[in-house]
Amino acid sequence: MAVKKNNKKAYVTLISVIILGAISILVLTTTIAIDTESIFATDVMDQGKQAKAFADTCAERAIDSLKQNNTYTGTETVNFTSGSCTLGAVSGSGNSNRVFLSTGIFKNATRKVSVTVTTVNPTTVIGSWQEVQ
């Protein structure tokens, strides 16, 4: 009879170890899946930030060009090592109320910035500078 009791205890222990092992594998797999998604989401965010920086760069170039020549009309593309930015047509004329759209591209991300320059010279006044869809 003593042999039967030990066998039952061994089976209970074995089943417990199997169940705990299965739970551990499930937790580990879930953790790896969540970490992989986090890495992907972080990469997408970083791409968006870089695309926004490219859009801002084109917008700053447009303002510099307007300060040098208030008949500047825009419509140009600037290529970088890892992306580009495109400046749309600058609307308005003269020294005030100039509006343009700048688009930055980096890998799979695209960001757009709409800029309104209230006054170009002698002191540049930015009416608005905002990211748009």
Q: Quick recap of the structure?
A:
The chain has 133 residues and is of the alpha+beta class.
How far is the first residue's CA from the last residue's CA? 78 Å
Strand order of the largest sheet: 1-2-3-4-5
What is the count of DSSP helices, taking H or I runs of 4+ residues? 1
Q: Can you write the helix and strand succession as a string? A: HEEEEE
* Total number of beta strands: 5
Poorly predicted spans? none
Proportion of strand residues: 25-35%
List keywords for this structure.
1 helix, five-stranded antiparallel beta sheet
Description of the molecule:
The protein is an alpha+beta fold and 133 residues long. 50% of the residues lie in helices and 32% in strands. It is built from 1 helix and 5 strands, in the order αβββββ. Strands 1-2-3-4-5 form a 5-stranded antiparallel beta sheet. Strand 4 and strand 5 (125-132) form a beta hairpin. The longest helix is centred in the N-terminal third of the chain and has 67 residues, at 2-68. The mean pLDDT is 86.
Topology:
Layout: H1 2-68, E1 74-79, E2 83-89, E3 96-106, E4 109-119, E5 125-132
Antiparallel strand pairs: 1-2, 2-3, 3-4, 4-5
